[in-house]
Design brief:
Blueprint lengths: L9 E6 L3 H12 L4 E5 L12 E2 L1 H9 L3 H6 L5 E3 L1 E4 L2 E4 L9 E3 L3 H14 L3 E4 L2 E7 L4 E7 L2 E12 L6 H5 L6 E2 L4 E8 L6 E7 L2 E9 L2 E8 L13 H12 L7 E9 L2 E3 L4 E2 L2 E3 L5 E2 L7 H20 L7 H28 L5 H10 L3 H12 L23 E4 L2 E4 H8 L3 E5 L2 H7 L6 E8 L12 E4 L5 E5 L3 H12 L8
Parallel strand pairs: 1-2, 1-11, 2-8, 11-20, 24-25
Antiparallel strand pairs: 3-7, 4-7, 5-6, 9-10, 10-11, 12-18, 13-16, 13-17, 14-15, 15-16, 18-21, 19-20, 22-23, 22-25, 24-26, 26-27
Bound molecules: flavin-adenine dinucleotide.
């Protein structure tokens, strides 16, 4: 167990107040962990970057009651059941009952929502604080920070680098970040004052690919990828005239009179940290993985990294679970990261590969007519088919996300996500059988034990389980029929020893 007497400035320091750091801070605060978030920016960014959520991220938000918060902040959500894989259209309705995706929502709004939530939970966010050094002694981590009031030193039990693709924490803590450098460059601008025809998943043109999406308030996102353009070594952002010239060469349309709100360049550099944890330092989000933003998966993956890590780190910090629980963060999310890199590389080839890829696009397009292929690709880009090795047992739901199905029990009818939301970062045992309910009760301080079972069933799971253990991140860790000892083994594994046995 990981309980110590040293004085700390915070139990956990999170570096970076982007979507990953804010999600993690909120999850840690839900469990009562003292969190300080440091961000070098004096003010939040207004960049639109990640433009929406996959169905899996929407499910994550729904499990914490965060979807409604957008409406509370006056931010409308544009939902869709459509997605694509490298430009091949997909329909997420192959997953009945799943939450829809959200499109065309600037990342700055997502950060506002998460920041408000984390602040309400008591998160201490310090802006204008740049991490410049760290030392992991094995007992704690000392962090050197440049602040508006001069240099400061902070001590913490765990440090999490959520500080983006150029992560300082990653470099300072000696993480390896192998991969491939960029082979192409795409230019982007958010532009107001131009009437631009939407090209949501891009338009293949003789000179390359042009994308356009409306962001509201008369603003359009345009992305230009001209074929055979060498990767430039840039010291700053490109000029809007470069984007407008490229747009004209590709589409013949003139947008040079537009008012550019944000101009940027990005590429297909693809890298993955070999470890997500070194001692007391962890990585999450872009700090752990960078890739072409094909299919809009980067921010989504970061939010889901945070959702996987938060409850585990909280359990270790609270002394309820052994440090080895953190190894499951690496095991589960590094595997997702590896798949993400393959997925975005494949999408990049299909999408940006030019005429040479046309026969492959044709064949893959035909294959997506088969439901099993469609479901496989939709599972990849929606995140709904992520399966963690939660074991033990052989139930088909094991390791998958718990769908938001209707449940009936002693307290009437409810839904799985209503219960997860009420559990506020704790686990759930759903059962009718007295023996199952009894065996889960010793963990009642960290798991809500509820008399309930699926009202009509669970999609693609026939017969539905009689009882379930759902982790705080909504993944199924045990399902009946299965051995009763498997349930106590799973509770022990994911939640530490029961209160009576705790050290
Ligand atoms: C053009 C473009 C389009 C994209 N489209 C999508 C999309 O549609 N969907 C999607 O899911 N993703 C998309 N992405 C990717 C998405 O923007 C990133 O994956 C996401 O921002 C990662 O979030 P993060 O919190 O991990 O890191 P970041 O958002 O990069 O946040 C890192 C934070 O750390 C802070 N920081 C950095 N260094 C330090 C330091 N030393 N000390 C203190 N603070 C520090 C920074 O100020 C920043 O606030 C896109 C990206 C680009 C560039």
């Amino acid at each position: 167990m990981d309980v110590q007497d040293t004085a700390y400035d915070a139990e956990v320091i999170v570096v970076g107040a982007g979507p990953t750091g804010l999600m993690l801070a909120g999850e840690l605060r839900l469990a009562g962990v003292e969190v300080v978030v440091l961000d070098r920016l004096a003010e939040p960014t207004t960049e639109s970057r990640g433009l929406g959520f996959t169905p899996k991220t929407m499910e994550v938000f729904a499990q914490r009651g965060l979807v409604e918060r957008f409406a509370d902040l006056g931010i409308p959500l544009q939902t869709t059941s459509r997605g694509h894989f490298g430009g091949l259209p997909l329909d997420f309705e192959v997953f009945p009952g799943a939450h829809p995706a959200v499109q065309n929502l600037p990342q700055a709004y997502t950060e506002t929502m998460l920041r408000t939530w984390a602040a309400e939970l008591g998160c201490d966010l310090r802006r204008g604080h740049t991490v410049v050094g760290l030392a992991d002694t094995g007992e704690y981590v000392d962090v050197s920070v440049e602040t508006p009031d001069g240099p400061r030193h902070l001590r913490t039990r765990y440090l999490v680098g959520c500080d983006g693709g150029r992560s300082t924490v990653r470099g300072l803590a000696g993480f390896d970040f192998p991969g491939t450098p960029a082979t192409l460059e795409l230019l982007l601008a958010d532009v107001r004052g131009c009437d631009i025809r939407p090209r949501f998943i891009g338009e293949w043109l003789p000179g390359g690919v042009a994308m356009a999406a409306p962001l509201g308030d008369g603003v359009h996102r345009v992305v230009v990828c001209e074929r055979d353009t060498p990767v430039r070594r840039r010291t700053g952002e490109p000029d809007f005239s470069e984007v407008a010239d490229g747009w004209r060469r590709l589409t013949g349309e003139d947008i040079s009179h537009g008012d550019a709100l944000w101009v940027s360049a990005f590429g297909d550099a693809t890298r993955l940290a070999t470890e997500y944890r070194r001692g007391r330092v962890l990585l999450a989000g872009d700090a752990a993985h960078v890739h072409l933003p094909a299919g809009g998966l980067g921010m989504n993956t970061g939010i889901q990294d945070a959702f996987n890590l938060g409850w585990k780190l909280a359990a270790v910090v609270r002394g309820r679970a052994p440090r080895s629980l953190l190894d499951t963060y690496h095991a589960e999310r590094h595997a997702v990261g590896r798949r993400l890199l393959d997925n975005t590389r494949a999408q990049g080839l299909l999408f940006l590969g030019g005429d040479a890829m046309q026969p492959l696009r044709g064949v893959l397009g035909e294959l997506t007519e088969y439901e099993v292929v469609h479901r496989h690709l939709a599972g990849l880009v929606s995140g709904l088919e992520i399966r963690y090795p939660t074991g033990p047992g052989r139930h088909p739901l094991l390791g998958l996300r718990m769908p938001d199905v209707e449940l009936v029990g002693d307290a009437g009818t409810t839904t799985a996500f209503t219960l997860l939301r009420a559990a506020r970062g704790r686990g759930l045992v759903l059962a009718h059988d007295d023996a199952v309910l009894r065996s889960a009760r010793p963990w009642a301080d960290r798991v809500d034990v509820v008399t309930a079972k699926p009202a009509t069933g669970i999609p693609a799971c026939d017969p539905p389980p009689d009882a379930l253990l759902v982790r705080p991140d909504g993944h199924v860790a045990w399902a009946a029929p299965g051995e009763a000892e498997e349930l106590t083994e799973a509770l022990d594994r994911w939640f530490g020893p029961p209160a009576a046995r705790a050290v």
